[in-house]
Design brief:
The chain has about 200 residues and is mostly beta strands. It has one helix and twelve strands. It is about 0% helix and about 20% strand. InterPro entries: 5peptide_repeat, PA_immunity-related.
Length: about 200
């Protein structure tokens, strides 16, 4: 298997990486295109000035990952543990295209997307507790079936976002743009929190 930490290779195309153990490693200035990572551990690692294009991470541990100046273009994370990542440190285009990032059945708690523009972000069936979405553009995003307990929304663009079957969210309808957003009826009552209403059966 090619060593992604070595200096000899900088570009990787259509490669499959399995069970890599690089916790705390420093991966710098590498380009991965159409690559798959399966059951790999990059806990506490640093991806610096790397580029990931059309890549997939499955059942990987990416907790506390440092993504300084790295680029992610159409990347899928599935059944991954990605706790405590500040995605603001990555390098993003000024106008991000749709579908740039997708998280499915993953744990993203204690992470930050503060102020980011990621329209059509996919965050499906995830545990996303205490995640910072304030000041961002997540229009038409997919939050379905995700646990959003204690996650923060404020001055957030959520027009057309899909929250059906999402749980435990707290979104102030006075401080966020929700035109066309979709909610499951029984959970939508949460949108009335903070408005001073008393609800009775």
């Amino acid at each position: 298997m090619t060593d992604i930490l070595g200096e000899d290779a900088t570009d990787f195309y259509q490669q499959h990486f399995r069970e890599l153990r690089h916790s705390g490693a420093h991966v710098a200035a590498k380009v991965f295109e159409e690559c798959d990572f399966t059951q790999c551990s990059f806990n506490g690692a640093r991806f610096e000035r790397c580029k990931f294009i059309d890549c997939t991470f499955r059942s990987c541990d990416l907790s506390n990952l440092d993504v300084t100046s790295s680029k992610f273009l159409t990347v899928l994370f599935e059944e991954c543990k990605i706790i405590g990542v500040d995605w603001n440190k990555a390098e993003w285009p000024r106008f991000a295209g749709p579908g740039q990032m997708a998280f499915k059945k993953s744990v993203l708690s204690d992470s930050s997307f503060f102020g980011m523009k990621l329209p059509e972000l996919v965050l499906e069936e995830c545990k996303a507790r205490s995640v910072d979405f304030r000041g961002g553009d997540f229009s038409r995003a997919n939050f379905t079936y995700s646990d959003l307990a204690e996650s923060m929304f404020g001055n957030t663009l959520l027009s057309g976002a899909d929250f059906r079957e999402a749980t435990n969210y707290s979104i102030d309808i006075r401080d966020n743009q929700l035109n066309g957003a979709k909610f499951t009826r029984h959970e939508a009552i949460r949108l009335l929190d903070g408005l001073g209403f008393e609800l009775f059966d």
